[in-house]
Amino acid sequence: MNCVRCKKKINPNIAVCPYCGAVNGQQGQNHGPGKQDGGQQGQNHSPKEQPRVKDRKKMAIILTIVLCACALLTFALILILGGRSGSSSGGGSGSSGGSGGVFEKSSTTDEAEETVDAGTYYQEIGDVISITGADGSEKVPTEGEVRKILTDRGFDRYEITTGYSISGEYLGDKPIGDTGTKHPLYETYFMSESGMLWSVEVIDGSLFAYPASYNLESGKDVLAIVSEKDSIIGYDSETNQYFEYVPKKTAAVVIKVETIDAEHLNQLTKEEIDKYVN
User: Fold this and answer.
1) DSSP label at residue 41
2) What is the pLDDT of residue 180?
3) Among residues 73, 72, 102, which one has the least CA distance to residue 86?
4) What percent of the chain has pLDDT over 70?
5) Which residue has the higher pLDDT, 239 or 90?
6) What is the maximal distance between C-alpha atoms in the chain?
7) Alpha-carbon dihedral of residues 265, 83, 135, 166, nearest 10 degrees?
8) 89 vs 43, which has greater pLDDT?
9) Is the pTM of this model over 0.85?
10) CB atoms < 10 A from the CB of 81, how many?
11) CB atoms < 10 A from the CB of 101, how many?
């Protein structure tokens, strides 16, 4: 067929002329941005186009909300895993990841700078049971072993990461594979059926779970930690050592369970944790 405006030959199945942009034929009543024969702007949008635009707007809004939520959760985790537990030792001590994970030295800004080593820090917040070198421990699992352990326990939704080599070298937030490489600690996350965000850690072969959102929102100075024993384990990257200790009640409350898995964490709602912390 020929275009109604420029008279050039075009494909009859094409609504808009590729040469002049005019709308042609019966299809032109519903398609394309061009003008119709009478020079007036036609009703030229496909019925599917508007819903697509709306869908895209809705999707953009949803994505924005999700990204904001992720940013808030990340900030919350930084607060919890990075510094809250350090306040229990007073006056500028180190901090540990979720009160168990990684100890990091820090200093005060007073006239004379004061530092505290990991041994002193853990003695201040609990009774130290043992100190073990990470690179000499036989309990440290490989990447592949940790992946299987966590997957078997229902923690398979989120990525498993590590932050250090077995010699204590900082690696950043590094996702693990399925290899025979060992690391001093591993971490993943779990979202319970009640909407509570958990941080799950494997340290020297033992599992610990921290109710991240609860610890942030509770407003309490005491942290809740779930363990399969009465003690918890901290890791100091500078000395590359594990510190197993029983925390003081003023620092953390250990919720002892038989097995740390998705089923047990789903049962530990905010109300249940309150019973232990209060």
Assistant:
1) B
2) 97
3) 102
4) 59
5) 239
6) 92
7) 80
8) 43
9) no
10) 23
11) 24
Separation of CA 92 from chain center: 27
Residue 195's contacts (CB-CB under 8 Å, 6 or more residues apart) are 213
Please name which of 208, 179, 266, 215 lies closest in space to residue 76, comparing C-alpha atoms.
215
159 contacts: CB under 8 Å, gap ≥ 6: 175, 188
| pLDDT tens digits for range 112-131 | 445 678 999 999 999 999 99
**Scanning the structure block, which residue is given the tokens 């599992």?**
207
Structure tokens at 53: 């635009």
Q: Residues with Cβ < 8 Å from 40, sequence gap 6 or more?
A: none
Exposed / middle / buried, residue 203 (Cβ in 10 Å: 0-12, 13-18, 19+): buried
**Which residues have CB under 8 Å from 179's CB, separation 6+?**
142, 143, 144
Cα separation, 166 vs 177, in Å, equals 15
Q: What is the pLDDT of residue 11?
A: 55
- Element of type H or E holding 128: strand 126-133
Please tell me the distance from the alpha carbon of residue 178 to that of residue 146, in angstroms, as a whole number. 9
Higher local confidence (pLDDT), 182 or 14 = 182
E strand or H helix that includes residue 246: strand 241-247
CA torsion angle 115 117 119 125 (round to 10): 40
Per-residue DSSP letters for 7-25?
Answer: --B--TT-SB-TTT--B-T
Cβ neighbourhood burial of 268 (10 Å; 0-12, 13-18, 19+): buried
